[in-house]
Write a structure and sequence with these properties.
74% of the residues lie in helices and 0% in strands. It has 104 residues and is mainly α. The longest helix is centred in the middle third of the chain and has 55 residues, at 18-72.
Length: 104
């Protein structure tokens, strides 16, 4: 991105014109908004990934509790295959990335 002084280097006296001053202020405001928006997008993605990690952690915790119940009461709680769990986890992560436009 060019600096304002670079744009007016051939005719710096134009920078003193009121219309040009207004345009410069407007451009500076837009640059600030763009910077804020970029930071907001990064922050949103961090929140999405944090939520996803919490969901995965909770699922792992639930699976361990279910395994304990399976050992204690095998007739009431059928054993779940780990391959199914891994495939579901992979689908969950891919779906979250696609839904939130996060590349990996």
């Amino acid at each position: 991105m060019k600096q304002i002084r670079q744009i007016f280097k051939n005719n710096p006296s134009l920078m003193d014109e009121p219309e040009v001053q207004e345009l410069i202020e407007y451009c500076q405001d837009l640059e600030g908004e763009l910077f804020d928006k970029n930071n907001e997008v990064k922050y949103d993605k961090e929140l999405i990934l944090l939520e996803m990690i919490r969901d995965i952690y909770k699922s792992c915790k639930d699976k361990l509790e279910y395994d304990q119940l399976t050992e204690r009461y095998p007739d009431l709680y059928p054993k779940i295959e780990n391959d199914d769990i891994i495939n579901n986890l992979k689908k969950f992560i891919q779906g979250m990335f696609i839904e939130n436009n996060i590349s990996f």
